[in-house]
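dumping the sequnces here before i forget
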Amino acid sequence: KQEVTQIPAALSVPEGENLVLNCSFTDSAIYNLQWFRQDPGKGLTSLLLIQSSQREQTSGRLNASLDKSSGRSTLYIAASQPGDSATYLCAVSPNSGYALNFGKGTSLLVTP
Amino acid sequence: DAGVIQSPRHEVTEMGQEVTLRCKPISGHNSLFWYRQTMMRGLELLIYFNNNVPIDDSGMPEDRFSAKMPNASFSTLKIQPSEPRDSAVYFCASSQGARMETQYFGPGTRLLVL
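..and the predicted 3d for all of it:
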């Protein structure tokens, strides 16, 4: 069974810092990997989707990388802002089946 | 587009009562997913529909849970009878395809069973 782990569980940084969130998965037979953002009391918003054949995706200040062979992905946030404060979730889609397997998330707090 | 719409946003009920959660997916999306989120277990897929047909219901915890999608614009998740351990946030998500495409999540229904 696919296990998705996110480290750290919580992170607090001052505004302006660059930061990296980590995601690891146990089964490298994935179809794609997604990073989501969840604000308190809200649903999930997709940030980046990386197909298994891709190495990275970028959107604005966000960059996500994927190393399928080692079962790792990172989400890099440049020049963090207080508005980036949220929980970030990593999810992998298996080669067979449809269930996205989610990590438990990293709770990020960016202080002014 | 209004995005994925879920109702109610909050539900408080007593153990043994029937609970019905509702979802309207984004127009044109042919895949619909029901998820449950708890602190202990995180986000888990309950059931997946494609073109209104249930494809994978292996995540449905037990017979007390049932889901329907009578048409492309409406789905329900029913719990009967409800139990305190069903307390969670239930999300509905939709996408244009099952796997290639991004899933768009609704705001969720926060369920508390007393």
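Chain A touches chain B through 23 residues (CB under 8 Å).
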